[in-house]
Amino acid sequence: PDVLFPGCELTATTKSYTFQADEEDDSEHILALSVVCLTEGARDECNVVEVVGRNHENKEIAVPVANLRLSCQPLLSLDNFKLQPPVTFRLAAGSGPVYLTGWHWIVNREDASFEEDDDLSEEEDRKELAPIMPAKK
Fold first, then answer.
1. Which of 8, 38, 93, 110 is most buried, by CB atoms within 10 Å?
2. Measured on CA atoms in the order 82, 6, 65, 58, is the torsion positive or negative?
3. Distance in angstroms (rounded) separating the CA atoms of residues 49 and 64
């Protein structure tokens, strides 16, 4: 099931927000960012939002995901950019306010049947496709 991520607002006084999933349950959590936008009260300055997470060596890394400016790009669609919690959003430059919203997907690790169904449907799709014929000269 998916749950609407309540979102967060980054400002000059609240420069970061950390999203953490419940680690006690036996589920996989995925946070998908949909939109990052400037909200009322924003000034015409560069507002850089970065995602702070951990890489494969468990070292903290920060990656900019949005550079918003009121006069040219006040909103950015991230098309459900997927992140693995815990993840921190940080206003690296600017004073905001910048609002982030998206989805929180919770998948039970015990229920892997959907993966098997996906494999079968891919095989069926390959069988139904007609062979590609060479172009006539």
1. 38
2. negative
3. 6
pLDDT band at residue 112 using 50, 70 and 90 as cut-offs: very low
Whether the per-residue pLDDT at 75 is higher than 50: the answer is yes
Asked if residue 56 has pLDDT above 90, the reply is no
Helix (H, G, I), strand (E, B) or coil at 77: strand
SS3 116: helix
**Torsion over CA: 25, 26, 32, 33 (sign):** positive
Boundaries of every domain in the chain: 2-107
CATH of domain 2-107: 2.60.120.340
Query: pLDDT at position 108, please?
Result: 75
Contact at 8 Å (CB) between 99 and 37? Answer: yes
The CA angle 15-6-34, to the nearest 5 degrees, is: 85
